[in-house]
Automatic annotation (TrEMBL):
PANTHER family: ALKALINE PHOSPHATASE SYNTHESIS TRANSCRIPTIONAL REGULATORY PROTEIN PHOP (PTHR48111:SF73), REGULATOR OF RPOS (PTHR48111). Keywords: DNA-binding, Phosphoprotein, Transcription, Transcription regulation. Residues 133-232 bind DNA. It comes from Acetobacterium tundrae. InterPro entries: CheY-like_superfamily, OmpR/PhoB-type_DNA-bd, Sig_transdc_resp-reg_C-effctor, Sig_transdc_resp-reg_receiver, WalR-like, WH-like_DNA-bd_sf. This is Stage 0 sporulation protein A homolog.
Amino acid sequence: MNNHLKKVLVVDDEIKILEVVKSFLESKGFTVFVAENGRQALAIFERENLSLVLLDLMLPDLSGEEICVEIRKKSRVPIIMLTAKIEESDLLTGLNIGADDYITKPFSLKELYARIEAVLRRSSDDLVPLYNKTSFNHGDLEVDFESHTVKKNRVEINLTPHEFKLLAALIKYPNRVFTREDLIKVAFGDEFEGYDRAVDSHIKNLRQKIESDPRNPVYILTIFGVGYKFGGAQNEA
């Protein structure tokens, strides 16, 4: 992986972790910024064009979850959460509010680098801002990620929780082609119970609700032999 010009923000209130991770990532070619609290982190985020954020959940001022939500209002920059929490509900909360992955403390630098490589590989080089309210195709489709509401031609439509999570996952990575297995992991994490083919049924129902012509979709595209991708053109709502 070519790390030239990639900027990483490491957020943690443990100085030793900041020093070790910063030194390690710099040895891998990254430009590294560090923050000991949430306010410093958000200031650096606003100032720098970051490629990745390593974000501790337990900080002295703002929580990692709060910082993640603030970043996701403006950017899809990949976020890996660093956490001592081991409760599944805590980890799922982080993924549901926009984190791309998590790693539990204590962790090895080798494991951390493997996670970073995987997240950067999955991420688009052209990171598009993700607003709380986002519209596509000149307002034909509107998605409010905060209230979990969707409108088609300005009329609110009813999506099931599974349908909304699938749509949100596809929108988050507009240039990524998902296999069924990948889509399940990104949309649901470990909470999904059922066969991967169940995704096809959810996609079919979702198309019936958001596509003007479900037989010729413009939002949820089938990539034959692989899976699905999102095809809408984004505009800020």
